[in-house]
Amino acid sequence: MTQIENNGEKTVEDYHEQLGGKFGTRHWQALMLFLIIINAYAMRVNLSVGIVAMTDNSSNPHFPKLDWDAKTKGLVLSSFFWGYIVTQIPAGHIAGKFGPKFLLGGSMVVCGILTLLTPVISMQAGWKYLCFLRFLEGLCQGCVYPCINTLMSKWAPPAERSRLFASVFSGSQLGTVLTLFAAGMLAGGGGGWPSIFYVTGAVAVGCALIWLAAGSDSPADHRFISAEERRYIESALVHSSAKSKSMKVPWKAIATSGPVWAVLITHLAQNWGFWTLLTLMPTYINSVLGFNIKSNGKLSSLPYLGNFILTLSFSWLADVIYQRRILSTSTARKMFNSIGLWGAAFALVLLGAADHSVTSAVTLLTMAVALNSGTFIGFLVNHLDLAPNFAGVLMGITNGISNITSILGPIFAGIILTDETDVNEWKVVFYLSAGIFFFGNSIFVIFGTAEVQKWNTPEGESKKNDEP
């Protein structure tokens, strides 16, 4: 860990020993961001289960059935990402220049209101208008990851980076679990499938308002943080400049950076497989395994519960590795990313070759999605390693561009699945995702690094490396 004296008195190690195990303001900030991520994913995932009930009302005939074929459903499910691409890079730039707090909170409030409108748009206006509404939701949520990355670059000391980062982003898995589990029950209950969107939209607005009231851009801006905790965080983040808001983004250096390209290619591969599974797993469980909407939601949530548990376990292990200098940060990032992508690819290959019984299918789907949690401590946190001063911009770039594959994955699967009950067609979907996972991680292993890039540090400031 970097040795830095603070006011001639304490080192980063002293502060970490004093405060590292205590729940502080940085943890409250992380908790609120965790809730933001839960709700962001709830509003993404709600349609994955909801669309099954919307197009097959056999489990609750009191609500209208929408006559959409597989291609139409693929377009509806992918439309979110058309908007999601657009705002990623601008959001990262705005968050870096003006602060992420209000951009994050405002975008979540608007997204929640749009979610509340989903039932009436679906029933009264039709699927094309629903696509436009989901496009607008994507515009709003395109601000989420760049804003949170910018916030984490100011709040997460390197010795706690993996745990804080993974804890926040594990909300994506818990949000998925809760939504997949609850959506099936809501769809089969008295409120029918519209209640899925009413519940997720209302809760999201509430959590966003809490963030707007209590969130903060950085320790320096927080009214109630202790002086000791602020000094600990700021002295540890030697590569996150207090002048980052006034720094010009080094666009050319970013565009020509090999490690950034490695992260981007890995992100492209991750999004293809992850969103193909997330959007189509309820359909697979319904059409191939033959489970109704209530059971479907429970089974669909199991893999993401496993992912949530492994994310927290891996992040704890990653910080132990960092603090004890067991492996270099670069090696640890590649190791966890390999578990996440090569491990998931192996499980998908086995799934394609399996007998597609309930036991084997659910076990292998759970394995594929759960192991994918390694990417949180792999390429996703790597944005902070490479350039903490531009973490939001980097996330905006890679998360924005990579959502091309978030769109293409479900669309290609919809084209392949001419008969959703045909096991052989599902095998093609699984093998294709496995191959893309394997390729993406291969690039990261060969070309990735956790070393801070020289273009992160303005001239005249420290150029020391956080990596042990």
Structure notes:
72% of the residues lie in helices and 1% in strands. It has helices at 12-19, 25-55, 70-86, 88-98, 101-116, 118-125, 127-141, 144-155, 161-169, 171-188, 194-214, 227-236, 251-255, 258-287, 293-324, 329-353, 358-371, 382-386, 391-416, 423-447; strands spanning 5-6, 10-11. A two-stranded antiparallel sheet has the order 1-2.
Protein structure class:
mainly alpha
Shape: globular
Oligomer: single chain
Give the strand order of the largest sheet, numbering strands 1, 2, ... along the chain.
1-2
Q: State which percent range the strand residues make up.
A: under 5%
* Main sheet makeup: 2 strands, antiparallel
Radius of gyration: 22 Å
H/E series, N to C?
A: EEHHHHHHHHHHHHHHHHHHHH
Protein traits:
disordered N terminus; disordered C terminus; mainly alpha; globular; 468 residues; 20 helices; two-stranded antiparallel sheet
Please write out the topology:
Blueprint: E1 5-6, E2 10-11, H1 12-19, H2 25-55, H3 70-86, H4 88-98, H5 101-116, H6 118-125, H7 127-141, H8 144-155, H9 161-169, H10 171-188, H11 194-214, H12 227-236, H13 251-255, H14 258-287, H15 293-324, H16 329-353, H17 358-371, H18 382-386, H19 391-416, H20 423-447
Antiparallel strand pairs: 1-2
Helix pairs in contact: 1-12, 2-8, 2-9, 2-10, 2-11, 2-14, 3-7, 3-19, 4-8, 4-19, 5-7, 5-8, 5-11, 6-7, 8-19, 9-15, 10-11, 10-15, 14-15, 14-19, 14-20, 15-16, 15-17, 16-17, 16-20, 19-20
